[in-house]
Amino acid sequence: MAAPTSLLLLLLLLLAPPDSSAAPVAGLIPELKFFEKSISAIEEVAGYYLEEKKEEGVKDVSGEQSSADDRQLGNSAADSYGALIFDLPVGTSPPQVLPFVMDITTDLVWAQCGKPGPTYAPTFRPNRSDSFSPIGCADPACSRLMPKYKCAGPSDRCGGTSAFLATDTFTFGTTPAKGMVFGCIGKVPERNLNSTFGSAGFSRGPLSLVSQLQISRFSYFIDDGGGDKSFVSFSVADDAAPAKDKGSRSTPLLKGKYPDLYYVKLTGVQVDGELLKGIPEETFSGSSGVILSTTLPVTYLEQAAYKVLRQKLLTQILQQKVVGVPKSPDEDRLCFPTKEFAAVKVPTVALVFDGADAAMELNVKNYFFNVAGSGQTCLTIRPSTGGSVLGSLLQTGRNMTYDIHDEGGVLTFGPAMPAGGQAAAATKGGAPAPAQASLVTIATLLLLGRVLIF
Questions:
Q1: Of 95, 104, 110, 291, which residue is least crowded by CB atoms under 10 Å?
Q2: Do strands 198-201 and 96-103 pair parallel, antiparallel, or not at all (unpaired)?
Q3: pLDDT at 332
Q4: Cα–Cα distance measured from residue 180 to residue 156, given in angstroms and rounded to the nearest whole number
Q5: What's the pLDDT score for residue 127?
Q6: Which residues form the signal peptide (predicted)?
Q7: Which of these, 413, 323, 424, 305, lies nearest to 368 by C-alpha position?
Q8: CB 137 within 8 A of CB 125
Q9: How far is residue 135's CA from residue 168's CA, in Å, rounded to a whole number?
Q10: Which residues, other chains included, contact 98 with Cβ-Cβ below 8 Å and sequence gap of 6+?
Q11: Could you tell me where in the chain the CATH 2.40.70.10 domains are found?
């Protein structure tokens, strides 16, 4: 299955019913079922966002905007566990401020268009923007951007009537970017994340912000302490590289089976500083590597490696005689009663990537997560077949920087910060340092911990 650059395929993914089952993923990004997992895992963010906006008495989708001087675009509250959500002005006369989810696994930038529905869902009104322009089916841009789309007639819009490609002005800080291509999508089912937020694609695909703005480097920090230190930033052209965090490590970004996605090579897993034995050599020998995601909280590890990791953790935890053997026979999960687990000395875990000393030491609270309302603390690493994905939970609390070039690029990840700690690249207000964001600085507010689906 080809990487999803088609608007029609995107719609299929968005309209698919959420998959709440916990079976191993049998076909990873960009396979359909995998996207269903991603949507299901964070769709509750939508409901909380709407409730909080109503409580604040906000009458429209713009919310409270920061001044242009500090180059911040609003504060979008998100009860998330890794989703980066920010406000972005779209259109002119005047701009309409809409919330977008940063997604590094998709190339399309899209927003829900049309008249607002019965819920408080942010909706873009094309007829109120003087700079809005649908892309026609006969436009060369349509065939270039959607080569497999078949036009019913030359006067049709590129993509159909209920979902189509268009151009408009997007404003980053005080800088307008004219002629940005994005998807304008009609009604999306309520209570789905995508009925509340648009998507800001940061993949390598031709429609992404990375490609349209010629971004050479982007960074993000997901605060794991319920604070306001989270940010997304990017640089264009040949801007000077920002200073690295002390203790930062780098690994090559690979060009995998799906060239629009970001891959890194995992070479092993450590528990308490020791490399796990018993993982078949071919487990990590694939050329594609591990896919990186900012919208899927849970990490998926190839089943052969997952089984060894799960058994090692289970053995070392049970040896302490603090908790009993998990009652569930499901070997695809590892959960313990939260009250008993609080006394456990949890073994440390690190993912070892290709490169000189490129081990990512994980925060315990991110790989053993207290699932609110369940009384359970569960391992946030799950088994998969067909590939592995590094989810957003394991990325929280550290700077993640992507330097992109045609041959692949480099991923640089900082050391894990203490809960609520300050990212080295951020200022006190949560925005990245000026040297790191030549065009835009986006601050977000993340509140971790209400809902997580395993």
A1: 95
A2: parallel
A3: 87
A4: 20
A5: 93
A6: 1-22
A7: 323
A8: no
A9: 10
A10: 61, 87, 88, 89, 90, 111, 122, 124, 198
A11: 7-12+28-238+436-446, 249-428
279 token code pair:
């993982």
Contacts of 395 (CB under 8 A, 6+ apart): 82, 222, 292, 294, 413
At the top level of CATH, which class does the domain 249-428 belong to? mainly beta
Q: Which two tokens stand for residue 128?
A: 């109120």
8 Å CB contact between 1 and 28: no
Residue by residue, DSSP assigns 75-131 as --EE--SS--EEEEEESSSS-EEEEEEEETT----EEEBSS--SS----B-GGG-TT
- Per DSSP, the three-state class of 136 is strand
| Angle in degrees, 0-180, between the axes of helices 32-42 and 7-15, rounded to the nearest 10 | 50
Q: How far is CA 306 from CA 266, 313, 422, in A?
A: 13, 11, 32
Write down the pLDDT at residue 54. Answer: 38
Among 22, 32, 112, which residue's Cα sits nearest to residue 380?
22
7-12+28-238+436-446 CATH fold: Cathepsin D, subunit A; domain 1 (2.40.70)
CA angle 314, 315, 321 (to 5 degrees): 95
Q: 273: burial class by Cβ within 10 Å (0-12, 13-18, 19+)?
A: exposed
**pLDDT > 70: percent of the chain:** 66
Helices of type H across 277-378: 303-318, 338-341, 364-367
Cβ 454 vs Cβ 94: under 8 Å = no
Residue pointed to by tokens 């299929």: 12
Q: 0.85 cut: is pTM over it?
A: no
Segments in the chain below pLDDT 70: 1-82, 116-121, 160-161, 187-196, 225-228, 237-245, 286-288, 418-454
Distance CA 332, CA 89 (A): 43
- Environment class of 244 (CB within 10 Å of its CB; exposed 0-12, middle 13-18, buried 19+): middle
